[in-house]
Amino acid sequence: MAKELKGRAIHLKSRPQGEPTAANFELVETTIPEPAEGQILVCNLFMSVDPYMRGRMNDVKSYVPPFQVGQPLDGGVVGQVVHSKALGFEEGDFVSGPGGWREYHVAPANQYMKVDPGVGSLSAYLGVLGMPGMTAYVGLLDLGKPQAGETVFVSGAAGAVGGLVGQIAKLKGCRVVGSAGSAEKVKHLREELGFDDAFNYKDGPVAQALERTCPEGIDVYFDNVGGEHLEASIGKMKNYGRIVLCGAISQYNATAPAPGPRNLMLAVARRLTLQGFIVSDERHQERRPDFLRDVGGWLREKKVKEVETVVEGLDKAPEAFIGLLRGHNTGKMVVKLASPV
Amino acid sequence: MAKELKGRAIHLKSRPQGEPTAANFELVETTIPEPAEGQILVCNLFMSVDPYMRGRMNDVKSYVPPFQVGQPLDGGVVGQVVHSKALGFEEGDFVSGPGGWREYHVAPANQYMKVDPGVGSLSAYLGVLGMPGMTAYVGLLDLGKPQAGETVFVSGAAGAVGGLVGQIAKLKGCRVVGSAGSAEKVKHLREELGFDDAFNYKDGPVAQALERTCPEGIDVYFDNVGGEHLEASIGKMKNYGRIVLCGAISQYNATAPAPGPRNLMLAVARRLTLQGFIVSDERHQERRPDFLRDVGGWLREKKVKEVETVVEGLDKAPEAFIGLLRGHNTGKMVVKLASPV
């Protein structure tokens, strides 16, 4: 590294009010420092945009600290080691870890995991083999506890998490119904991902669509959406049903609190359990080996499909993120920053 | 039984719209039949009025069938056997079972349980040793899973269920806070039942009262009330908190659905579990021996107090029930119908 290395990064220019716009982001060029002892310099190949990032753009304390104005954004990446000062990492190794929204990142090697490019595509480590995949696996199996023959409904089913939830539920012998925001996505769920039924929630009230697609009720509802979907699902839950509260993308851009489900007290008469979770919690980490074995195996055996929407170029990352919140993706939304060498 | 036996009963005259009134009830005298083989004739000594009965007065399918207009109401009683045609039951035995809202009831003996008048008072089998007691025991211990040192908040704490929830939580080493609807009840919780803190929810917003009484947050919220209490509690729950959904007395007289908690999606960031239950479910019955052993033991050792509000006379039962929904009781509300012979 004789030559000084320059790299671009996306900074948070201002906090979005409601829906984010291009003006909330800024492309900045900086000089990349050399790695210190124990650190690696990573060239980012793919970066992730995820719905949870919207929450971090607000100045609110939550389970992850807020992004800072004037500082680079962050998130998951798959990259390639350019320079290593850490034992066990070699130039050319593929890794996944933090440091998204920029072209290069220097960080302690222990924040990274080496990834095997032979299991799926490299970007799969941001999707089915990454955080969204683990979210679907842990949320559905450990919290939703679906049994063969039960009906599983998943909202945001054409997204990175929802698509895998549905596919795993099918593998477990469930009847699977999904909602999505366009006719093409509904077709994708039915024809590509093997859902038993699916509907476009923009076509009419969710409660009516559930009446039609889950006439005998829902055993497990995997909620990525909140709002109307949650209320309508509570209304169709069977006794002893489980609701996995994973996200509420319908409300992430909200500027005022939305009314909660008016029928929540049905949870008493129907003995429902509603459970929120954060997949990065320590308590879920013991499931990582099972997750990689199962989902990795299903991928190799083509029992699970890896679906992604790829946007090219760091400068397009804000657009990709804004599009994600509008549902412009099918499957995992990733931004391709560079090609492996 | 040479002489024809007459007995009075309260019938549902009409379904209440909103708050029930005296006009919804009718006192009727009927002839009591002799018991057939396997049946017993019971003279009711105490009958129970319970919040769940309000739901059964609506013409809505739920976990128990609705009461029928023109028919007697029903509910738990403690009574004494007048005439037995069933093995194992003798004249003079004390029993608990169904057939409330009337002076006498004839029914199959297998619907009844013999009760021991030596453990607590006879009416305790409608309260701490009966359905409300079992509700508190199972809901708090099996669903709320309180750990020593944790903060437990219970709403409707001066009621039959809430009062026992708080006392059991204290026995388990928790810090216990309760809400109730009058200054006297708050005093009762603090001075009689040993709550660490309590507040009158009519004095101001529940969220402010929780800020003051649970400054470090809530680990277990036992919800008897719903509405504002539930939303405010969600706002003060700690990470991994458990919310036991037992009832929603604030909404039982509602004529339109009330808005749900606007902050339910905090359940994701805080990893909350909300769980509804019905104590009469088969799955909870295996806990009955533990419940009777533990709560019976605590009663005998005076570690738990039996608190009740007694109204005298069958004709006063509607008034007792209407008063219950308005919070006129402290502890279990019972109606005394007769004295043991």
Explain the overall architecture:
- 2 copies of one chain form a homodimer.
- In chain A, strand 8 (about 150-155), helix 3 (about 160-170) and strand 9 form a beta-alpha-beta unit.
- The two termini of chain A are about 15 Å apart.
- Chain A folds into 2 domains: about 5-125 and about 305-335, Quinone Oxidoreductase, Chain A, domain 1 (Alpha-Beta Complex), CATH 3.90.180; about 130-275, 3-Layer(aba) Sandwich (Rossmann fold), CATH 3.40.50.720.
- In chain A, the strands form 3 sheets. In chain A, strands 3, 4, 5, 6, 7, 14 and 15 form a 7-stranded mixed beta sheet that branches. A 6-stranded parallel beta sheet of chain A has the order 10-9-8-11-12-13, sandwiched between helices.
- Chain A is about 25% helix and about 25% strand.
- The mean pLDDT of chain A is about 95.
- By secondary structure, chain A is an alpha/beta fold.
- Chain A contains 10 helices and 15 strands.
- In chain A, about 50% of the residues are buried.
- In chain A, helix 2 crosses helix 9.
- The interface of A and B includes residues 62, 230, 265 and 277 of A.
- Strand 13 (about 275) of chain A pairs antiparallel with strand 13 (about 275) of chain B.
